[in-house]
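#struct-help
A.M.: can someone run this one for me? Single chain, 696 residues.
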Amino acid sequence: MVSACAYSGAYPTGYGRYKKGTEGLPEEMFDRLQASGFTHFQQSGTGAIRKYYNYVRVTPMVQPLDELGQSWPLHDEVATPGYYAATLDTGVRSEITVGEKVAVHRYTFPEQRSARVVIDLSIGGLSIDLGRTVPLRAQVESMGYGCAQGTVVMEGVPLSVYIEVDSPGWRQMLWYDRRLVDGGTRLDFDSIRHTTLRPFGLIFMGPAAAGQTIEVRLGFSLRGHEQARKNLERECGQTRPAFDTVHADTRDRWRDTVGKVQVEGGTTARRTVMSTALYHSLIKPCVADDESPFWPTSGPYAFDICTMWDIYKTQLPLIAAIAPERHTAILESLIRVCEEEGNFPIGYRMARGADRFFRQASALAHTALADAYALRPQSIDWSWALVHMVDDLRRMYGEDFFEHGVVHPITHTLDLAYAHHCTAQVARALNDHRLADDLADLSRGWINAFDPATGLLLDSSFYEGGKWNYSFRLVHDMAARIALAGGDKTFIDMLDQFFGYGAAPVTQPGVRPLPAEMRHGFALNRFEGLNNEPDMEAPWSYHYAGRPDRTAEVVNAALTWQFGTGRGGLPGNDDSGGLSSWYVWASLGLFPVAGQNLFLINAPAFERGALTIGDQEFVVETSGHRETPIGADGIDRTPPTQYVQSATLNGKALHGAHLSAADVHKGGRLHLKLGPEPSAWAQGVRPPSVSDLHAP
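D.P.: on it. Structure tokens below:
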């Protein structure tokens, strides 16, 4: 539930150096890494953050309170799963760890007559235009003996915190507008506006000997102070100080989870990117049991589902494989959101209101639910889930789709047709064949999104992309999609054009590119790399046209050149782990086709990889694999062994480049023979399409 990190106010998640930017290279906001403190509830790699999160800033200071908000350079940073540390320019060594619902800070001060730890409950959001969050209401209470509590209502959500500070001999006071409240024990605010907001919070202050440590423990809850206190007691136990205990527990949980994916071989840099990608894949969504502020009963509450249009393709299938209990909890939470709030969210933040990213996409939870049904988690009431899946299809853009068979933005037509297909599968499995037939009829509406004259989508508005990259999404009837484009050759030629085969190199835009430069780039109708949602699946379209060798070339190039170990080592926003999950799957030689109980097969980036799924293990092993470097060190004149020559599954020949998700989840051994030249493997056996089921 809790994430914590240094806070600079920069975009996109509050820690960094850059301003908000959507075109070209980002513009620097600061010329150094710096922080004004450490905040909680940070997002992970999303673009649409603005004012959300970064709440409860904790700042160790050796300056007067008047200087709160100043930023200091960061030195000697260390980051591992569950731990962050840096030294501020003031000489204070700052360490943070988190538990499920707690954060523990440890500050080591230089010798100082008047050291301070300041907790600011008024801050939220980012230091960019329109990026600041102002609490609607707030209450802070100093309870003495190193204890305090507070609640702030941010974006309609009551966030409560229970605070313990180990600072023997220090004074404990409230402050308001950077002035101490002498003798006061409680502050209450109501109807706060941007024009009336003044910062407020708590301060702990006193002399510090050189090397003295101060521990700050914060328990959080969305259901009041008492639950926040219980969360703190449960995770920190009776041991004081608690930092090492909480850190060890969190480190062990991370080790257990990331240990579910193992690879052998690969260069040091490639293994570093792989393990980092796996970690990033599992940071979000946040799952907080019994913490919903909107319904009173118990059960999982998932937020930071930002953004569903990224994570449903790659991240949710990864969580389903290696953390199935978490996956089920996320889906149960989505069903409950639909029950309580009236719709499946496209994105779901720790915020109240109708802003659920519905303009970006439609009915994506249906895809994740269809995948889950194929794997049959027992705790979900599937009849009840189907009720909500069907009802949600008629909301938002779904009503127009039902009446007219097509909606704009045109990508929503694809979303809704696909969601009808996914829901039909669940209905048929539950023996509601009449409903399934009706839904299947509507699912054929994907064809209405395309122009038969061009084989591309109709002209429309598009979110983070254009007509070309959205035209190569994987629909549920790719055989008919390819036929609509004019057959295999025409479809492959279109894909080759999109991926730039035979095209001259282009110059990448720099900082603040001119509109004319950007228009020229967009007019290329070219694959931009993996920097937005639809491009994650486009390379795999080649599989359906009998050219898995082309998929291999594009995916291998992306793994080699677009990901690196340094800052900026991702080709685009990670979007809550959607992009990192793509990297994990692609490195294993697999790609989940969400909603179809299907995996596509490609040459892996490692000699051997293994997924632990429950008590089973699915192994991807190779013969003929050759290690290749990546990134700036990736210049290698020897052809990579990136093409599958033949394959076996559990010792039996596999002639198609696909597997069912059930095959993967029940464990087994996939052996891929690799070579430096394309082969005829899998060209004649295509991944399944809906129309195949009705072929004579």
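A.M.: thanks! The longest helix spans residues 411-429.
D.P.: also worth noting: The mean pLDDT is 92.
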